[in-house]
Design brief:
Blueprint: H1 2-29, H2 33-42, H3 61-67, H4 97-112, H5 127-133, H6 137-173, H7 191-201, H8 215-220, E1 224-225, E2 229-231, E3 237-240, H9 244-254, E4 261-265, H10 271-278, E5 283-288, H11 291-299, E6 308-312, H12 315-325, E7 329-334, H13 341-351, E8 356-364, H14 373-389, E9 392-400, E10 420-428
Parallel strand pairs: 4-5, 4-7, 5-6, 7-8
Antiparallel strand pairs: 1-2, 2-3, 9-10
Bound molecules: S-adenosylmethionine.
S-adenosylmethionine binds near residues 215, 266, 268, 314 and 336.
Length: about 425
């Protein structure tokens, strides 16, 4: 039986690896940093020891360290991170202060060792989701901060790659020695950054709740425009009527008095534009890129409303023309679809300054990361930092969102699950 002889060493190696994994998870759940340090630095069989996973629960060392703070319940299995069950008793129980404190130290240590902040367990929970569910808010905050650091780094890497791509393209244009492959980012030029990105990219991103469709693909697709929603060709929700209260409050915050000039980017169902009209603006420009939406706007007579100017096209193509003409606004609203956070950052870092009056206000639909509370919290901070860097102050108003259970029928995925909407109001810094 040659097969058995051949299999035996492999089998033993697997057992060894599994034991190593369990040892790390156990040390994490016991908050034994001395042992963890030794295990993480000496386990040559595990190249990414800070990110091992329990096969049953999907727990990483971070999950294990945080789950150990959960007060015992009947459904909780105890040992080393094999707990994936949600407690049957949903009343939060008091957490033990000492355990919490040792968990804080362990989580900080694991993060320093390269633990990924948003790995998912079998319950679809990140370590931060778990911390929030059991009421360990100090641990939750640590995980949010870790998410902010990782996402800021990822965004910088994206920008770096774009820059690197465009540099290479420039070289191509100049007829220098560049070859076709040289237009790709050259890992040799930034080995540390590329390594870091590979590590972070292994985890699910907290990136704004974008559908898996690119902006150009979306703009090519045929839309299903209904009374209470717009869906794209893949049933992704582009705009839904439940957002009306958010749109009303955004419009009122941006245009508090009649007679102001407003620019809206992304018409959708025309909800926010309807509220802008109620404020009798002196000028009302609308940029809309999708042909189907523009056709619907015209059908509804938007092109003949006094003061309304429709710009058909992507904001990326339309705005430079407006800046060149010197057109200025008292208020700007941004709510597009299937664009990345990088696109949004480009909008506020490079375009708003040329279009908004010094005392003007601008805002955006804040749906970034809204399919998971921790992602929403992470992206609020990421945006706040980038806005600050671009020269803006932002104030957030919390608005309760109605329960949306029935709303998602026929929609590919719920892009909103968090309880409260944080409405942003941005101004130039004093
Ligand atoms: C979420 S909807 C806007 C909803 C709108 N706030 C309302 O109250 O109904 C997004 C809109 O942005 C448009 N859009 C997507 N990408 C765009 C781009 N790059 N430039 C301009 N408009 C864009 C979409 O076609 C869509 O109509």
């Amino acid at each position: 039986m040659p097969e058995i002889t051949d299999d035996t060493p492999v089998h033993l190696a697997e057992v060894d690896v599994d034991l190593d994994v369990q040892e790390i998870l156990l040390a994490s759940s016991q908050h034994d940093i001395t042992k963890l340090r030794r295990l993480l630095r000496t386990q040559s069989s595990l190249p990414d020891a800070a990110n091992v996973k329990d096969t049953e629960s999907g727990f990483s060392p971070l999950h294990a360290a945080i789950a150990a703070c959960e007060p015992d319940t009947e459904t909780k299995e105890t040992q080393n991170g094999t707990n994936g069950a949600v407690p049957s008793d949903s009343n939060p129980k008091e957490l033990d202060t000492e355990t919490l404190q040792s968990a804080v130290e362990t989580v900080k240590f694991l993060l320093q060792e390269g633990a990924i902040w948003n790995d998912l367990d079998v319950n679809n929970e990140t370590p931060g989701c778990l911390a929030r569910r059991i009421g360990a808010l100090e641990l939750y905050d640590l995980m949010v901060d870790a998410g902010v650091r990782a996402e800021l780094l990822l965004n910088r890497l994206d920008a770096y790659e774009e820059l690197s791509d465009s540099d290479s393209e420039e070289e191509d244009k100049e007829g220098e020695t560049a070859t076709a492959t040289a237009t790709e980012t050259d890992p040799e030029t930034a080995p540390e950054l590329v390594d870091a990105s590979a590590e972070i990219a292994a985890a699910p991103s907290a990136t704004p709740a974008n559908p898996e469709v690119s902006n150009p693909q979306y703009l090519e697709s045929h839309l299903n425009i209904q009374n209470d929603r717009i869906l794209d060709a893949d049933q992704n929700g582009v705009m839904m009527a439940w957002e009306s209260d958010i749109m009303r409050k955004s419009a009122k915050a941006l245009l508090p008095t009649p007679g102001l000039r407003v620019l809206n980017i992304g018409h959708g169902m025309g909800i926010v534009d309807g509220f802008f009209q109620e404020q009798q603006p002196a000028a009302h420009h609308i940029i809309e890129a999708h042909d189907d939406v523009v056709a619907e706007m015209k059908r509804r007579g938007w092109d003949s409303k006094p003061g309304v100017v429709i710009h058909q096209g992507r904001w990326q193509d339309v705005l430079p023309g407006l800046v060149a003409e010197g057109v200025m606004f008292d208020a700007i609203y941004h709510d597009t679809f299937a664009e990345s956070y990088g696109d949004f950052r480009e909008f506020f870092s490079e375009q708003v300054i040329g279009l908004l009056e010094q005392e003007g206000r601008w805002g955006f639909f804040n749906g970034m990361g809204a399919d998971r509370q921790i992602s929403y919290d992470v992206y609020q901070k990421v945006a706040e930092m980038d806005l600050f860097e671009a020269g803006f102050d932002v104030q957030w108003e919390e608005i309760a969102v109605p329960k949306l259970e029935g709303e998602w029928e026929g929609v590919r995925r719920a892009y909103w699950v968090v309880d409260d909407y944080r409405l942003p109001l941005c101004k130039f810094m004093d």
